[in-house]
């Protein structure tokens, strides 16, 4: 070089033939070199002259999309991996290409999706919230200002998730002969699948149908009914099931406790005739010689000790027994309670 530095590595000079030769590197930029040529004789005397070498690199040809990237599918909750075909892009200049990936709108890839530029590989595990369609853009750059891009579709396919219990059902209470209603909380169940619809059903926890007096409206989630007045105190264990479109289910249960509808019929100090109902009654004759007529249900008969003689008449074809100083008729569905001075 005219400044005393050696020639650039890509430039060769043959001192015998006086020929320069060069192969410009791809990354060569427009530039000018001042090259000095020196002639030396046997005695060491020299002559020197210089010339300019102007470098104009060839125009860059941008990369091109070569093979279409086909649409892809990934399943929710399953690891997905996809490697771009090696011939997805080509560069007419033979430049080495580097790759980047984003959504078509320029936004970054979702957090679950990773792109390894060196390996041209996408990978990740989508979740339920990622179900849907993505439009992905891959850009190839040659490092000299040229680039090419192509898009492909990625569908994240939903895998059904079973419904879940969201709010526990509270235990309930009712009374024989009185209407009872209960609407399930709107958040009793939930389903994380987008667009899924839950269908409700109800039966006893042991698999038997609900009692005939109890109805369940699956559309509104409401129970309603009137337990018979003859209903004895007890508890129903009711199970509610939520079923999604795919048949997956969630189930929870609650207790419905029914209190007996007990009515008390009390006599006077005289001789009374007292009749019960078809429900659960307490018949208390009080003093005097009383006639007591229990009907249906589970009845309690109270006798006043030392205050007359009461007679119980079976309205339901029971049987009779004489006990102590009192006349007592026993029935399969009634209880006799004897107390004195109460």
From TrEMBL:
Keyword Thylakoid in record: no
Keywords tagged on the record: Calcium
A GO MF label: calcium ion binding
Gene3D superfamilies: Immunoglobulins
Cellular component GO terms held in the UniProt record: dystroglycan complex
SMART domains: CADG
InterPro entries the UniProt entry points to: Cadg, Cadherin-like_sf, Hemolysin-typ_Ca-bd_CS, Hemolysn_Ca-bd, Ig-like_fold, Serralysin-like_metalloprot_C
Keyword Chaperone: no
Dystroglycan-type cadherin-like domain residues: 64-163, 164-265
Pfam families the record matches: He_PIG, HemolysinCabind
UniProt-recorded name of the protein: Type I secretion target GGXGXDXXX repeat-containing domain protein
């Amino acid at each position: 070089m005219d400044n005393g530095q050696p020639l650039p590595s890509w430039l060769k000079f043959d001192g015998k033939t006086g020929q320069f030769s060069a192969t410009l590197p791809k990354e060569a930029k427009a530039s000018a070199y001042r090259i000095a040529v020196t002639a030396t004789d046997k005695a060491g005397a020299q002559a020197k002259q210089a010339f300019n070498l102007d470098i104009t690199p060839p125009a860059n040809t941008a990369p091109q999309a070569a093979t279409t990237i086909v649409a892809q599918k990934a399943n929710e909750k399953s690891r997905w991996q996809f490697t771009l075909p090696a011939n997805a892009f080509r560069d007419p200049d033979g430049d080495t290409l580097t790759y980047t990936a984003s959504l078509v709108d320029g936004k970054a890839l979702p957090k679950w999706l990773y792109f390894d530029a060196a390996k041209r590989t996408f990978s990740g595990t989508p979740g339920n919230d990622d179900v849907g369609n993505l439009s992905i853009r891959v850009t190839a750059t040659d490092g000299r200002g040229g680039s090419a891009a192509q898009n492909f579709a990625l569908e994240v396919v939903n895998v059904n998730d079973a419904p879940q219990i969201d709010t526990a059902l509270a235990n309930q209470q009712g009374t024989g002969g009185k209407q009872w209603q209960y609407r399930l909380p709107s958040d009793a169940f939930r389903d994380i699948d987008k667009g899924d619809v839950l269908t409700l059903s109800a039966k006893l926890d042991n698999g038997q149908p609900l009692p005939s007096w109890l109805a369940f409206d699956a559309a509104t989630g409401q129970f309603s009914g009137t337990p018979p007045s003859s209903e004895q105190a007890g508890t129903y264990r009711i199970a509610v099931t939520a079923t999604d479109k795919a048949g997956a289910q969630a189930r929870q249960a609650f207790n419905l406790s029914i209190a007996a509808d007990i009515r008390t019929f009390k006599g006077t100090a005289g001789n009374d005739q007292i009749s019960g109902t078809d429900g659960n009654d307490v018949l208390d004759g009080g003093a005097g010689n009383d006639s007591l007529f229990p009907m249906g249900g589970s009845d309690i008969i109270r006798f006043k000790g030392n205050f007359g003689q009461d007679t119980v008449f079976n309205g339901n074809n029971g049987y009779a027994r004489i006990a102590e100083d009192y006349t007592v008729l026993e029935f399969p569905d009634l209880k006799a309670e004897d107390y004195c001075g109460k």
